[in-house]
């Protein structure tokens, strides 16, 4: 049994045994409830430099603080990282520097492994060895670029959320393709709705794993359709709805109706608590959140690497994963 921060497992086969025994369940149709929106503004705040790295690549525009807006040229190594990300990879400890002539030349890439894939609710989390919010100027420990929330640039404490350094969500030069999203609704009267956001290849890859692991808690056994992230749509997921970032903030899970205004406050402001319904493991909403969180950590595509060792740390979600894993081991779910 995997217990966050206390135990480890390094066997892909055992991971599949743990997560692929679910199936069926649920009724009705999936759907999506409207998201609460509230804008932040753009530009980017500072971010530490990472000491990450590996083989393929990922990058776009030069290392200055400005940006590649929605273009951001693709390099041959970035193409390689598009095709080589896999759920069976564990990342890499190797760090190299993006050479001159390529997007983000001079920044590091690689150094991220599955052991460090979990972030927090903070945009800029999930970078191995780096604390602090924001993604400006950082390297690419997992080769993938961080989520771009889109929206107009601006000033103020929420500016770090709206950086255009990595282009808009529809920037098709990002490793893995433009940003896509897919909705997962709980089979419950509350019908809590979570959105997965990442590059298109990652979203497509994870849908199968999430359905195999979590379908018992979903309102429909039909896999959700992924679609391009339209950040200007009235019901588009928003930064204040993030419940967990992964893989150097290149993947995020959001919850409709959650309004964590701390993301627009001063750095270090305490996150607002998640709704009781999704923290309570006696509800399908809580079981679904625990399942989605743990399965994303296990199955999110990584570049290169061999076997994984887990030591994630994720606050309340780590506690949810702990209890949820214990229920699996005891055969209660």
Q: Can you put this structure into words, describing what you see?
A:
Helix 5 (284-299) crosses helix 6 (315-330). The protein is built from six helices and nine strands, in the order H-H-E-E-E-E-E-H-E-E-E-H-H-E-H. The strands form three sheets. Strands 6-4-5-8-7 form a five-stranded antiparallel sheet. Strands 1-9 form a two-stranded antiparallel ribbon. It has a two-stranded antiparallel ribbon with strand order 2-3. It is an alpha+beta fold and 333 residues long. The chain has helices at 12-19, 76-84, 200-214, 276-279, 284-299, 315-330, and strands spanning 85-86, 96-97, 108-109, 179-185, 193-199, 227-228, 242-246, 251-255, 302-303. The protein starts with 11 loop residues before the first helix and ends with a helix. Mean pLDDT is 75; it is low at 1-83 and 305-315. A hairpin with a 4-residue loop joins strand 7 (242-246) and strand 8. Helix content is 20%, strand content 10%.
């Amino acid at each position: 049994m995997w217990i966050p921060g206390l135990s480890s497992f390094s066997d892909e086969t055992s991971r599949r045994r743990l997560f692929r025994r679910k199936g069926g369940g649920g009724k009705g149709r999936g759907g999506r409830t409207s998201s609460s929106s509230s804008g932040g503004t753009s530009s980017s705040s500072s971010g530490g430099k990472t000491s990450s790295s590996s083989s393929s690549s990922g990058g776009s525009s030069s290392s200055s603080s400005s940006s590649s807006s929605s273009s951001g040229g693709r390099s041959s190594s970035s193409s390689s990282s598009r095709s080589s990300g896999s759920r069976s990879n564990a990342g890499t400890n190797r760090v190299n520097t993006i050479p001159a002539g390529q997007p983000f030349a001079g920044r590091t890439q690689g150094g991220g492994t599955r052991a460090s894939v979990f972030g927090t609710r903070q945009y800029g989390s999930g970078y191995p060895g780096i604390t602090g919010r924001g993604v400006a100027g950082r390297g690419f420990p997992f080769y993938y670029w961080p989520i771009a929330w889109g929206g107009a640039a601006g000033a103020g404490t929420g500016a770090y959320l709206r950086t255009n350094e990595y282009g808009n969500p529809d920037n098709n030069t990002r490793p893995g393709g433009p940003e896509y999203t897919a909705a997962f609704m709980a089979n419950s009267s509350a019908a809590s709705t979570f959105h997965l956001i990442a590059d298109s290849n990652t979203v497509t890859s994870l849908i199968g794993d999430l359905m195999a692991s979590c379908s018992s808690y979903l309102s429909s056994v039909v896999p959700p359709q992924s679609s391009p992230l339209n950040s200007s749509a009235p019901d588009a997921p928003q930064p204040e709805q993030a419940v967990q970032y992964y893989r150097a903030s290149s993947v995020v899970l959001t919850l409709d109706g959650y309004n964590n205004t701390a993301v627009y406050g001063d750095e270090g402001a305490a996150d607002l608590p998640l709704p009781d319904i999704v923290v309570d493991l006696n509800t399908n909403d809580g079981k679904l959140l625990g399942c989605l969180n743990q399965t994303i950590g296990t199955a999110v595509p990584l570049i290169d690497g061999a076997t994984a060792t887990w030591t994630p740390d994720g606050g309340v979600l780590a506690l949810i994963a702990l209890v949820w894993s214990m229920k699996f081991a005891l055969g209660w779910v």
